[in-house]
Specification:
Length: 97
């Protein structure tokens, strides 16, 4: 069971939708949560992980060093070529391994 407070305008829209479609308000609330929860998790859990990383004092490792993948020559404009490289061959072996 969950109780929420909605702004009046949002509650009016929800009431109207429920009345017009003959479905309960809980149907639409559940659907809205199901459609957006994954995105909310991505954003807020990533922010929390970033804050934990910053608080840890650890230093970031460049992508090239962490994965052994080549840098993106040409910046983000070359991303499709870089992605194709990863799909076709995977990252090269790390030197010194």
């Amino acid at each position: 069971m969950l109780t929420i407070r909605l702004p009046e305008d949002l509650e009016a829209r929800l009431n109207n939708l429920a009345q017009e479609t003959k479905r309960p308000k809980s149907f639409y609330i559940r659907e809205a949560i199901e459609r957006s929860l994954g995105d909310l998790e991505d954003v807020y859990l990533a922010k929390a992980a970033l804050e934990r990383f910053k608080a840890s004092g650890e230093k970031a490792i460049p992508l090239e060093r962490a994965t052994g993948a080549p840098p993106w020559p040409g910046g983000l404009n070359s991303y499709p070529k870089w992605l194709k490289y990863l799909k076709n061959s995977g990252p090269p072996p790390r030197s010194g391994s």
